[in-house]
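Listing S7. Sequence submitted for prediction.
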Amino acid sequence: GAAVSVSVCFEPTRVSITVQNRNGATSGNGAASGVGIKGMIERATAIGGTLRPGPTAAGVLVDAELPYEAG
C-alpha cells in the first residue's frame, strides 16, 4: 500500500486534521450524497467545519477543520 500521513492538532475551539496519501491514487469521486469526499464535505459543513480535498505534487491531501470543545 501507499504511505499515508495523518496530522491532528487540537486547539481550544477546533481540531484540524490533515491526511496525505503519497501515491496520488483515488478510489472514485463519491458523487452520491453521503458518500466519499462529497459526503465528508457535507458532514463537516453540517457541524460548522470545512473539508478541503485536492491533489498535491506528492499525492492527495484532505484537510479538515472542525469545531471542538474541550470537555
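Caption to Listing S7: primary sequence and predicted C-alpha cells for the chain studied. The longest strand covers residues 59-67. Residues 30 and 36 are 4 Å apart (CA to CA).
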